Automatic annotation (TrEMBL):
The chain crosses the membrane at residues 12-35, 74-92, 112-132, 171-192. GO terms for cellular component: peroxisomal membrane. Keywords: Membrane, Repeat, Transmembrane, Transmembrane helix, Transport. Solcar repeats lie at residues 14-99, 106-199, 208-303. One of its GO terms (molecular function) is NAD transmembrane transporter activity. This is Peroxisomal membrane protein PMP34-like. Pfam families: Mito_carr. It is a multi-pass membrane protein. It comes from the Eukaryota. The gene is LOC107672147.
Length: 317
């Protein structure tokens, strides 16, 4: 069997599939538990006239104005997108890692490069799903900004059709440029997570405790989110599709100008702290979600490997 066959086996391996399924299941469960916090975060990012308040206060306003189930509006498309996105990311991350390392130990630098590569694939494949779920999640919301026009989508398929008919196929990839920059978020998160995991498991071949997994998952996500938050805000605004921007024939140049325009506009209105509007809600949601996701992911993967009698590769640890 040649080296090409071995690399193909690494890419299409049972182990990569288990990691992908476990990551998807863990993220879906965690996001469902903390979904209302994501609703609060998105409102603060997109509705620039809504005053910054604590997450409970924002959710209380939303429930009072829009009903008890409003914090879970758009849950289904978000969960579908998240499931696909995490499946793609975890599969690519572990396949690329197995192909590159070939039994060697990993390093933070390698984890970062592999995370970026997996993130780029993930963004290009799943951005249309995220554009649609952002629109559906904000449909029917009561905005403080009167300039935002209400949308009327009947569901995921109808949203895809309307966006393509009214805005063109390219609109499904709105926010792709900041999303590509934001591959640093999961890449940094995985680099820190894998690094802390290696430190805890150094010299001892054992499974981490639930508390250890939860804590290192929370730490990794908190650092990655804080570093990349301004770009996450721009990403949400671009996906929503209702933003003022200078037109340009070049799509790449237009994307660059859109990102710069939105960042400078926020700084001009609210100062540098305006770039971090909604960070408290985002940190609360994303840190808890990531920590629970990593915990469930590790438990599901380890249990699956045990039940199927497959020895998990330890080289990456």
């Amino acid at each position: 069997m040649g080296s090409k066959d071995l690399k193909l086996l690494d890419v299409f391996s049972y182990e990569s599939l288990v990691h992908a399924v476990a990551g998807a299941m863990g993220s879906v469960t965690a996001m469902t538990v903390f979904f209302p916090l994501d609703t609060a975060r998105l409102r603060l990012q997109v509705d620039d006239k809504r005053k910054t308040k604590s997450s409970p206060a924002i959710l209380s306003e939303i429930i009072k104005e829009e009903g008890l189930l409003a914090p879970y509006r758009g849950w289904f498309p978000v969960i579908c997108s998240l499931c696909c996105s995490n499946f793609v990311y975890f599969y690519c991350f572990h396949s690329l890692k197995a192909t590159w390392l070939q039994g060697q130990r990993s390093t933070p630098g390698r984890d970062l490069i592999i995370g970026i590569a997996a993130g780029v694939v993930n963004v290009l494949v799943t951005t249309p799903l995220w554009v649609v779920n952002t629109r559906l999640k904000l449909q029917g919301a009561k905005f403080r900004n009167e300039d935002i026009q209400p949308t009327h989508y009947k569901g995921i398929t109808d949203a895809f059709v309307q966006i393509m008919q009214q805005e063109g196929v390219g609109a499904l990839w709105n926010g792709t440029f900041p999303s590509l920059l934001l591959v640093l978020n999961p890449a940094v998160q995985f680099m820190i997570y894998e690094g802390l995991k290696r430190q805890l498991m150094r010299g001892v071949h054992r499974e981490l405790s639930s508390v250890e997994v939860f804590l290192i998952g929370a730490i990794a996500k908190a650092i990655a989110t804080t570093i990349t938050y301004p770009l996450q805000t721009v990403q949400s605004v671009l996906r929503f599709g209702q933003h003022g921007q200078p037109a340009d024939q070049s799509r790449l140049r237009n994307s660059l100008r859109s990102v710069m325009y939105l960042l400078t506009n926020r700084v001009r209105k609210w100062g540098v702290l305006g770039l971090f509007k909604g960070l408290e809600a985002k940190l609360l949601q994303t840190v808890l979600t990531a920590a629970l996701m990593f915990l469930l992911y590790e438990k599901i993967a380890n249990t699956t490997f045990r039940v199927m009698g497959v020895k998990r590769t330890m080289a990456s640890h």
